[in-house]
Amino acid sequence: MNTVDELMALAGAQDSQEGALGFLTQAARLADSQRDREAGFRARTALVRAATFSGFPDRALIHFAWLLGTFDRHPAEFGHHGYQMMWMYKWILNGSLENPEFALSRLAKLQADFERRAQAFGSGAHYAAYHRLNVATHVGDRAGAQRAFLAWRALPRDPLSDCPACEQNKLMDYYTERGNPAAAVKLGREITEQGMSCHDVPTVTHANLLRPLLQLGQQEDARAAHEEGLRLARLDRNFIQTIANHITYLVAVGELDRALTVWAEHLDLALGIRSPLDLLGFLGASAALWRALEGHGHQTLRLPRTFALFRQDQTYGPGVLASHFTREAGALAARFDTRNGTDRFARRLEEQMRLVG
C-alpha cells in the first residue's frame, strides 16, 4: 500500500495535471483514513491546483471548501498558509464564473467572503475590484463594468494582484467591449513589443488583437497576429477559446479552407474540454464556419469518433453541421444568459453569425 507521500510523488511524476488527479484523490482519502490532517491539507492543496488547471472547477471547489474550513478551525496549525489560501480562492472565483450552473448569488457570497478575508489579510483588495470587473464584463453590465474598472485602477497593486501581463490583457478586453479598438490595439502592441508574458500571455493577446485590428482595417497586422498566435496556441487544449478566435478570424476574412483545417485539427480537443465558457467559444466559431460553408458542397474530413455526427464515410454536409453547431451553441449561450439574467451571450453568438450574412 502506498503512503500519502508516495501517492503525491506519483502525482508529481504525471505528464499532466489531469493525470495527477487520481493519485491526489487517493492521497487525500488515505490521509483522512489515518486522521492525518496535515497530510490531508497537503494533498488537497495539490488537488485544488490540479483540478483547476485540468478543467474540473467543481472538484476544485469541493476540496477548497475542506481546506478553507480546516484553515479556519485550526489557525495555529495552518495559519501560515494564508497567502496560499487567498491565491487559491482567486482560482475558485474564476472557475465559478465560467460555469453557468453556478448561480451568481452563490458567486456573490464567495466574492464577499474573499473581500472580508482580503481585508483581514491585508492584501487582495486590488484583485477583488478586478474580479468585479470580470463579472460585470461577463454578464454584459456596461455601467457596472465602468464602476469596477475605475475602482480597480484607483487601487494599488498588491501581492495578490494578477501579473501585469494578465492585467494589461484584461484592459484590452475592456476597451474592445466598450467599442474602443484603437485603445485595445495600443495595449496589445505594448504587450508584444515589450515582451510581457505569463502562462497565457502573449498567446491569448494575439487572438484578442484580431477583432479590433479588423475593425480598424489593419489587415496585414491582423494577419501577422493570427499567424503568430495560432503558432503559439496550436493543439493546446488550454487555448481552445483562443483557437476559436482564430477560426472566427479566418471566417471573417473568407479563408474558409484554412479555417476548416484549423477547426478539424482541434475538434477532438474541443470535444473533451470541460470549461463551458471555452466550449461555447468553439461552438460559436464552428457554427459560423459551417454556415459559411453552406453552398460549397459536401466536405470530406477525418473527424473523431467521439463527434456526435461522426460518419464512417467521412463525408459531411455543411447544412447539417451548421444546424448542429448553431443549436448546440445557442443552448449553451442560453444557459449562461439564464444564469446571468442578460442576453450578452446570445448577442455575441448573433455577431459571429453575422460574419457570414
Could you tell me the mean pLDDT? 96
Report the helical percentage.
over 70%
Using the alpha-carbon principal axes, give the shape.
Answer: globular
| Cα-to-Cα separation, first versus last residue | 62 Å
**β-strand number:** 2
- Order of strands in the sheet with the most strands? 1-2
Percent range for β-strand residues: under 5%
Order of helices and strands: HHHHHHHHHHHHHHHHEEHH
Q: What is the count of helical runs?
A: 18
Q: How many domains?
A: 3
**Broad structural category:** mainly alpha
Low-confidence stretches: none
Report the biggest beta sheet as strand number plus sense, adding barrel if it closes. Answer: 2 strands, antiparallel
The value of Rg in angstroms is 22 Å
Protein name: Tetratricopeptide repeat protein
InterPro entries: TPR-like_helical_dom_sf
Organism: Deinococcus arcticus
